[in-house]
Amino acid sequence: MRDVSRRGMIGLGAGAAATLGLAACGTIARKDAVGHPGGSPTASTGEPGAPKRPARPIGDGSTAYTGKQPRQPERPVPLEPGETPPQFVVFSWDGAGEVGTGLFERFLQLAEENDAHMTFFLSGLYLLPESKKRLYLPPNNPRGASDIGYLSDEHVRSTLKLVRRAWLDGHEIGTHFNGHFCSGSGSVANWTARQWRSEIEQAKSFVTEWRTNSGWTDLPALPFDYEKELVGARTPCLLGQSNLLPVARELGWRYDASSPGGVQRWPQRKQGLWDLPLQAMPFPGHRFEVLSMDYNILANQSVNSTRAPSYNYPAWRTQAAESYISGFKRAYETNRAPFFIGNHFEDWNGGIYMDAVEQAFTHIAREKEKSADVRLVSFRQFVDWLDVQRPELLAKLQSLDVAERPAGGWNSYLRERAA
Asked: 20 to 30 A from 186, CA-CA: which of 44, 112, 336, 342?
């Protein structure tokens, strides 16, 4: 991810592509073995949230239509004039592969315990066995190339199991595309719209044809129609959005989470899609702010080192957690702008960033228990809410600056409808 904060800058353009941490947005494949998930390839497994009726296989049976996604919030309704807007918080994960750390399952369990939802931006290659890597034709790169590597077969199987569980638990499955190219002539920053379309079609095919590509018949189908479920993405290193958006719009996507840095304000549309950027948030002990993603905090703490001296870890863990919590509080106590947090299933610097994310998540979940105003949702659930709001009230929300409180309180600020 790009570091937008060392000079206090928030909205760097494409020329800043070489700044700190840009190539480290993906999860690195590991070869640690984990157990195979079992189960029937088509029937309900009896797990919580599993379909109650037989699945209708799609294509080769890698995916299946199982009905409406379980565990979704109630249908959103428009804000009434004078009503206080909710405080939305979205925890999102880039890559979303299980690589033997147990982190995917750890945060699924945390979300389940707190009745919360998240977005998982799945890298398509994480469902493609390495033995079949030549099926991947990355734009401007050699056949089969990938800057995040490939998962072992054991980990592909585990990822299938956990993606299935995530959807049944009510989480969103977006895309992080495939090979995660962030530098050189093959960088996604240089891809044309046609090349983005190719990358997207390949990402979808790796999800919807994993059974053909792997030859495995002992695993259950993913319980969703990915063509319909896929409505948003985050690009590698937040690059290439300008040429991606026209393609995303043509495909009927509803949002993009790839803007290279934003501020804690209510989002706007860009080229017809909701633009949902990672945001600059307070960074305790510093005058500048840091982007709301684990790697950007790491880059500012350890100058890109993922294995820095361990004596730093306690203070860095605390600083990271306090940064997320400060970002949440700033929005919650002022303009109620949605707060977006990006993560990776990585154990950088002794796993302190995962601990910090869990600490922040737990803090926000406690606030959610105190007030229905706080909502832990996926990006898709958030844009569901945005899309039903009255334009005149949404415009008033969008006009509020970072940390700006509504004049006269929410009841006064939003009380009048436009004629």
From this structure: 342
